[in-house]
């Protein structure tokens, strides 16, 4: 019992002396001491300019051409047959479930080209891969694709853009019926 009371006293002394030692240091520091570590808006703007400069004109042109190569374009890790990450696999599976026409789809493996891998992130201002483009417009990454799939927005968008294999077959069938009537 004696040793417990001594231990408590020692503990109180060390905690109270540590707190007392910390108080004067905190009180002595001016309130604006950390303001110098914050960046001014102009320095943030120049940082954004530097990041944009990393995307070469050649890479930008190549990405522009890739995005325009098909109505549905996916920049992914791996290929549709052998995705190299779970997010790319999930994106491919969702596009398959939606019924995207393979003739209207293109996939680009960012693992084959380091410039493409970094450039696509700057091009879209989106930090992750995979990235989906529909009619040259950036849609989002895997999280956005999953969310749109779950709430029905992706099916609606793909149908509006006429990139579904089933929609094409229905159009051909409707055109065939019209010819029969004539």
Automatic annotation (TrEMBL):
This is Monothiol glutaredoxin-5, mitochondrial. It comes from the Eukaryota. GO terms for molecular function: 2 iron, 2 sulfur cluster binding; disulfide oxidoreductase activity; metal ion binding. One of its GO terms (cellular component) is mitochondrial matrix. NCBIfam families: Grx4 family monothiol glutaredoxin (TIGR00365). Keywords: 2Fe-2S, Iron, Iron-sulfur, Metal-binding, Redox-active center. Residues 72-139 form the Glutaredoxin domain. The keyword Iron applies. GO terms for biological process: [2Fe-2S] cluster assembly. InterPro entries: Glutaredoxin (IPR002109), GRX_PICOT-like (IPR033658), Monothiol_GRX-rel (IPR004480), Thioredoxin-like_sf (IPR036249).
């Amino acid at each position: 019992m004696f040793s417990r009371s001594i231990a408590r006293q020692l503990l109180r002394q060390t905690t109270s002396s540590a707190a007392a030692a910390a108080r004067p240091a905190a009180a002595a520091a001016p309130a604006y001491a950390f303001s110098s570590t914050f960046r001014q808006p102009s320095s943030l703007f120049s940082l954004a300019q530097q990041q944009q400069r990393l995307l070469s004109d050649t890479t930008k042109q190549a990405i522009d051409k890739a995005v325009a190569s098909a109505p549905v374009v996916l920049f992914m890790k791996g290929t549709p047959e052998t995705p190299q990450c779970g997010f790319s696999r999930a994106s491919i599976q969702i596009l398959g479930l939606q019924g995207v026409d393979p003739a209207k789809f293109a996939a680009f493996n960012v693992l084959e080209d380091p410039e493409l891998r970094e450039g696509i992130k700057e091009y879209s201002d989106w930090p992750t891969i995979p990235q989906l483009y529909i009619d040259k417009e950036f849609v989002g990454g895997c999280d956005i694709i999953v969310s749109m799939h779950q709430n029905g927005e992706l099916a609606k968008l793909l149908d509006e853009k006429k990139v579904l294999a089933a929609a094409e077959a229905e159009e051909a069938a409707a055109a065939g019926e019209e010819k029969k009537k004539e």
